[in-house]
Amino acid sequence: MSAQFIAQNLIFGVLTGSLYGLGAAGLSLVFGVLRVLNVAHGELIMLGGYASFWLFASYGLDPFASLLLTTPLMFVIGLGLHQGLFTHVETLDEDMRIKNSLLIGFGLTLALHNLAIRLWTADERAVTTAYSGAVIAAGGLVFPVVRVAALVIAFGAIALVHLMLRATYVGQAIRATAEDWEAAMLMGIDVRRTYLIAFALGSALAGVAGTLVSVGYSINPSIGLEWTLKALIVVVLAGLGSMPGTFLGGLLLGLAESVSALLLGGTYREVVALVIFVLVLMFRPQGLFGR
Amino acid sequence: MRQPFALVALVALVVLSVLLPFLTARTDILNLGFLIFLYIALAQSWNALAGLAGQINLGHAAFFGIGAFVMRHVWIAGVHPYLGLLAGGAAALLFGLLIGAPAFRLRGAYFAIGTLGLAEILRITVGNALPVVSTLPAESIAGYSLTHRYYLALGLALLTVATLAALARSRLGLGMLALRDDEDAAEATGVDALKHKLIALAVSTGFAGLAGGVFAFYHVSYYHQLPFSPTWTFDALLITFVGGVGTIAGPIVGTVFYLLVREVLVQSLVELHLLIFGLLFILVVLALPGGLMDAVARVRRLSERARARRSMTGAT
Amino acid sequence: MLEATDLHVSYGDLQALWGMSLRVDDGEIVALIGPNGAGKTTLLRTITGLLRPTSGTVRFDGRALHQERPHHIVDLGIALVPEGRRLFAGMSVLENLMLGAFTARARPRRQETLRGVYEIFPVLAERLGQPAGTLSGGQQQMLAIGRALMARPKILLLDEPSLGLAPVVALRIFEVIRRINADQRVTVLLVEQNVKAALELAHRAYLAQGGRIVGGGTGAELLGDERVKSAYLDFLSVS
Q: Cβ–Cβ of A281/B106 closer than 8 Å?
């Protein structure tokens, strides 16, 4: 194995990891603020991917440009899903809330999965633009343009959300609610509305991730569970409460997968990620960067 | 099971089930019967942990898979299939207890996703190590008897239901129910949470393993990783919740409903039954936490109240 | 200004308040004392909307509160410094203060209010970037009060502000409360275990027990009350 081969694999790991981080960011936000584990998060990513695909296939809209449409769309879908499904769990106590939200998310997963099969068939889809095959060659290494663009956008999206959480009153309200929702209420924060906004934001982030997946990789109706698991692994690895931490966690997961593929062969790539997941759950459930 | 009508109906159904192979030779009906009893056993095994002890185990397929894996290999090696079944059940139970103590340190959501992670690890590892189809040797295929397997599944279903019913009434069972409703309160009154959870887990995984063994006994050939697929967990979860988690009749009703709907819809659109059940499931979680059994109980209460009102007004 | 009438409040099946009534007039400091479990915290939580009474009313400037949602009640001018302070420990001192001015009423004037809070609590101005969780007990209490003041309240509710504080620090807190009431005309409803300090500070006081009001009067009157004396012998003997 040459140094170049190794480096190339690690680069791909980082590029993929940036999407893991973005995929996990939405889940982390929702879990951190609402204490709701939305196991349908992966399906939302899948939906985002199909939204871009559909716009591209029907109107030739460039997928990166379509983000301007699909992101607000996913935000609105998030609003609807929250109002329709998750409001009643917010009155429950923590244990019941998590259990019920798990189950609702599961039902939603089934429904969305089968809806997607109905609408778009089970075939594998990808958005292939004119520049899809383009690469940047540097130092004997290959950087696929779409994946690098995806990393930049993923980083940008997370940075934007991080900034919003720090600098705007809405963001402060979200952080306060995540820490102590009763105290947040005493500040005059409308906690119910904050939950709604946080959930919709999580959905929007999932949508962006989905679009990037559809361009750089491929999508089919069954990728939901896979992405939910990836997002869960990153959330557990990174811990809650930090957007930059989640992004970093995603990168780490991508790297870990690459390293294990190099050492153990590609088929055990998934297993290593899962083993790390279970180990972190067992021994450091608050994650590497969490509080 | 206090209503005499329900008891009579149950006995009638059991008798009918036992006699079915004598009433018809149609393999499609017997196959459906087999599947119904297998799924009843699977759903009840999941119900044992979720309905009794209140723990959502998303990695249930791991135990079904282990049961199938062990049984299959033991049987193909020449051992009597019934011993293979027991071996499968025992292996699943042991694995369950092994991961149980550390897993139960995780509360709520973390337990659910942790078990899911473990199950996926097993599935992928088995799929990587044995990517081939497991096929029975020729002699076993030659002597294949569907009726035999039908009765085996029926027996397992009856055993599972009976065990759960007995457990629910026992002191252990009451302790588990207390845990389910409020773990902290139960512990405060002296219920040893870990012990009860582990016993529920043992029952759950043991029966899942036996069910897996029956699966391995039934199929002539299948991919080794198939019984480890999360679909088995999700089917059990779906069936149990729609039927009525925590009840004995729930998983039975849910299974029959689920498989019948699947049979009917397989003509038209294969996955539509999942969409329907997904929506039903959401409905149950949001509005009807007791599932179909709860709906039935409510309807019964409403009609009783209506009848009482009528008799009262009749008296004046 | 604030009037609770015949409040019955339950936690699920457990009734905590059995017809509690009290009154706080404009500009007063009113103390609510009583043993643990008397329902004092429950009353404050009901006033701020965190709990709904099963019967009875809460009126603020004549306006009924008991159907309002908590975030709206804050906007009306009621701020609570909760028991245990409930600061946002991971956020900085400044962020905590700014969150205090979240309401539509308080937000436009937040810079002005902030300057006022710095004047009362100069130590906060020195530690703006520090995470709230790293402050000392006394500093945390000051931040909690400062945060409540950021909402520009008409009435300030305090739940056990001296809890866990050294006596010297607690004294300073009481002095601050007196100052806020005198200089900024903020009405105060104070729940306190330190009976002596509370009764010396307050214009009027109520004695609560078992979810009911069992006594009331001026601070001096209650200091002389036999029930208060016998229940709080240890507090009163510390002079």
A: yes
Q: Residue holding tokens 């989640």?
A: A246
Model's pTM, two decimal places? Answer: 0.87
Neighbours of chain C (3+ CB pairs under 8 A): A
Residue A191 forms contact with C (CB below 8 Å): yes
Is the domain covering C2-233 a CATH 3.40.50.300 domain?
A: yes
The per-residue b/e assignment along A200-238, b for 16 or more CB within 10 angstroms, e otherwise, is bbbbbbbbbbbbbbbbbbbbbbebbbebbbbbbbbbbbb
Nearest residue to C196 (alpha-carbon basis) of C160, C238, C165: C238
For A3-283, the fitting CATH number among 1.10.287, 1.20.120, 1.10.3470, 1.25.40 is 1.10.3470
pLDDT in tens, chain A (291 residues): 688 888 888 999 999 999 999 999 999 999 889 888 888 999 999 999 999 999 998 998 888 999 999 999 999 999 999 998 888 777 777 767 777 788 888 888 888 988 888 888 888 888 888 887 888 888 888 888 889 999 999 999 999 999 999 999 999 999 999 999 999 999 999 999 999 999 999 999 999 999 999 998 888 988 998 899 899 999 988 888 889 999 999 999 999 999 888 888 777 788 888 888 888 888 877 776 665
**Is A91 within 8 Å of chain B by CB?**
no
Compute CA B166 distance to the chain's CA centroid, rounded to the nearest angstrom: 16
Query: So what's the ipTM on this one?
Result: 0.88
**Residue among A181, A187, A191, A289 with most chain C CBs within 10 A, to mutate:** A187
Is there a contact between B215 and B45 (Cβ–Cβ < 8 Å)? no
Total number of domains in chain B: 1
**What is the identity of the amino acid at A177?**
T
**Residues 207-226, chain A, touching B (beta carbon < 8 A):** 225
Contact C91 A190 (CB under 8 A): no
Chains A and B touch (3+ CB pairs under 8 A): yes
Residues in chain C: 239
Q: From the candidates A268, A274, A283, A284, which should be mutated to test the interface with B, based on the most B CB atoms within 10 A?
A: A274
Cβ distance C151 to A188 less than 8 Å, yes or no, reads yes
